[in-house]
Amino acid sequence: MYYDFYSGGAEDQQTLRENVEAFRRIMFRPRILIDVSRVDLSTSILGYNISAPIIVAPTALHQLAHPQGEVATAKAAATCNTIMVLSFTSSCTIEEVATSCNAVRFYQLYIYKRRDIAATLVQRAEKNGFKAIVLTADTPRLGRREADIKNK
Ligand SMILES: Cc1cc2nc3c(=O)[nH]c(=O)nc-3n(C[C@H](O)[C@H](O)[C@H](O)COP(=O)(O)O)c2cc1C
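Above are the sequence and the flavin mononucleotide SMILES. Below is the predicted complex in structure-token form.
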């Protein structure tokens, strides 16, 4: 059931397939006869410098995959000099992740009807040195993930 959670998509998984296909369609443009003695992919997001234009997207429940969960992911982000976005549905607490490493951390938020829950979480994230809120707006309801239904 853990594997299905990570690998599965909703309904007939057409969007999941299209996500993979979309990346396959992206080609690197070769640039010929230019100086490659120093290659630098670094960039910045909201003023924070990172080693490449890649950050850790918010994903739920890392402890399903590893006992150290998001703490280990945040340490890896710090080692790679990039940003860790901690999921609202993280298996480690905001405080555990904050004290585990010095990665630049953003906090992902779903907005529930109970706005006081969101407010409390934002305050906890702020208090623990998270630098930005990543608002997830595309999940007004969860997709119908048939593998999860089967595994219940
Ligand atoms: C296993 C899994 C768990 C996820 N959990 C969350 C989550 O907790 N919060 C969230 O905002 N997005 C979550 N996402 C969405 C990812 O952040 C999203 O896939 C990522 O932003 C990459 O976007 P793309 O799939 O459109 O390329 C999850 C995705 C996967 C595959």
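The chain has a mean pLDDT of 95.
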